[in-house]
Design a protein that fits this description.
heterodimer; A: mainly alpha; B: six-stranded antiparallel β-barrel; six-stranded antiparallel β-barrel; 32% helix; disordered C terminus
């Protein structure tokens, strides 16, 4: 069974990380119909998860902070909203990274689904209690993020 | 490749500090008006990303228009000429009605004649964030866009500007649940408040008694009572009028008059001048 460790040692040349980061941000604000937008995966979170699994969260805190601020500016949220929503699941991912790296891709996708749910939950909670915007159910995006995880992991590891 | 990561003893503290800093940012952004200037400055950084996303769609739209056949263009031209003729005929009647209206206002010593200045803007992006129904326009403080400015398309009211940045502005659509527009029935003048039902592209009227004289197909226009939207612009048509079992009030659903999901260009409206009316004064032609 193909697992994450196997993909980590692969040395394919792919897109540089910063380019994938920009692509993920562009995909986040892609204009779609409201129904399709509900199923839009958390591209940026997925990419950062690959990065954290590969290099731990310790050296990535500045990247997470900048990414969160850029997402807030793109979505018109209060500055800091996405930073908090990103840091919490990524912290847990970094904490259990050893365990997650050693399981199969399918099992990893389940972990990613749970952490995406934490991200969606934190985002929902902040938007609801800040009174800026109307929070909606984000579970479809959680499902699609988990489903596309094998592909994100593969792309992220070739960067 | 690093496989076993050494955890710094200060790492947890750094994460907590980052979260506290983010929380402080949120509070300042929410409470402190001066923070909006910083936000406007930072928004310029993400402008290339917004343009990158919108450019392929604009190119596609341009190619689609360019690929139209000669016959299609001739047919569309004929249709537009017929439409223009019809509008010209209607306009002649409107000019007489406007003059009559001005004279009546003078007789009633009505407060103000409001003349609006219009500016065309293009959609830069549609907010796909399911938390809010907003659109981003390619006009900002550089073109004197201001917060609260009403936005229309060729068919009706679209929303109002809620955030202005140097080169862009964000518009809250009338279909967003946070949007409320004072409206009145065009047929009988019955006033109400229309709020969005987003993400569904519909509006609902609040606190309408069951006995109200409302019919399916009635047009609701802005009443102008909020001081934001000028009076008389179409907001939506009634698509459902019924009784809610659990409430004393009727349920009224409106379909927005504006083509919210398909419009590419919008009109930003701003009061040009407020000219006090004087009895016997020259009518505002």
């Amino acid at each position: 069974m193909h697992n994450f460790n196997h993909s980590l040692v692969s040395r394919h040349k792919g897109l540089p990380f910063w380019l994938m980061w920009i692509v993920a941000l562009c995909l986040t604000i892609l204009p779609l119909s409201p129904k399709a937008a509900l199923w839009m995966p958390f591209w940026v979170l997925g990419l950062l998860m690959v990065r954290v699994l590969k290099q731990s969260l310790q050296g990535q805190l500045l990247l997470v902070a900048i990414t969160g601020l850029v997402l807030d500016l793109l979505h018109g949220n209060l500055l800091g909203t996405h930073v908090i929503a990103l840091v919490i699941p990524l912290y847990f991912l970094g904490h259990y990274s050893g365990r997650i790296r050693s399981v199969t891709v399918v099992q990893q996708a389940v972990w990613i689904g749970i952490l995406s749910l934490v991200y969606a939950g934190v985002l929902y909670w902040i938007i609801k209690y800040s009174g800026i915007g109307t929070p909606k159910i984000l579970w479809p995006a959680v499902v699609t993020t988990a489903l596309i995880w094998p592909w994100i992991a593969k792309c992220g590891n070739t960067s | 490749m690093q496989t076993i990561f050494k955890r710094s003893p200060w790492f947890g503290l750094r994460v907590i500090v980052l979260m506290l800093f983010s929380f402080a940012l949120m509070v300042m952004d929410h409470q402190w008006n001066r923070f909006h200037q910083l936000r406007a400055f930072l928004s310029v950084i993400v402008l290339p990303i917004q343009y990158t996303v919108s450019t392929p769609f604009k190119i596609f739209s341009w190619l689609k228009n360019s690929a139209m056949s000669q016959q299609q263009l001739v047919s569309e031209n004929a249709e537009l000429r017929a439409h223009q003729l019809l509008l010209s005929a209607q306009l002649q009647r409107m000019l007489i009605l406007k003059q009559e209206n001005t004279q009546l206002k003078q007789l009633l010593h009505s407060g103000h004649y409001v003349k609006e200045k219009m500016m065309i803007a293009s959609l830069l992006s549609v907010e796909t964030n399911p938390h809010s129904q907003t659109i981003l326009l390619n006009r900002g403080t550089n073109r004197h866009v201001f917060q609260g400015q009403p936005v229309l398309d060729g068919y009706g009211v679209m929303g109002q500007v809620v955030e202005v940045e140097p080169y862009t502005s964000r518009v809250l659509l009338i279909t967003d649940p946070q949007s409320a527009v004072p409206v009145q029935n065009y047929r009988n003048g019955l006033r109400a408040i229309a709020v969005g039902k987003g993400p569904a592209p519909e509006l609902t009227l609040l606190y309408v008694p069951e006995t109200s004289d409302i019919q399916v197909g009635d047009l609701y226009v802005t009443s102008g009572l909020d001081g934001i939207y000028p009076a008389g612009y179409p907001v939506g048509k009634v698509t459902y009028f019924g009784r809610e079992k659990s409430s004393r009030f009727a349920e009224v659903i409106l379909s927005p008059a504006a083509h919210i999901n398909s419009t590419q260009h919008v009109i930003l409206l701003s009061p040009k001048s407020h000219v006090p009316s004087t009895a016997g004064g020259k009518p505002d032609a």
